[in-house]
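User: Predict the structure for this protein chain, please.
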Amino acid sequence: MKTLSVIGIGKLGLPLAAYYSHRGYKVIGVDVNPATIEAVNTWGMSAKRKAEK
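Assistant: Here is the predicted structure, written as structure tokens:
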């Protein structure tokens, strides 16, 4: 399995991570915002969209 790191799980990084995850890559997301990291780890990628509203 190939691994990909995405630096910044924001408006560009999050969809990019989701795309490659769906394509079978192991994706490691990195962000400096603890709230973003917690939201993605707890609720998955859809939580990030809810947190931005």
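The longest strand covers residues 3-7.
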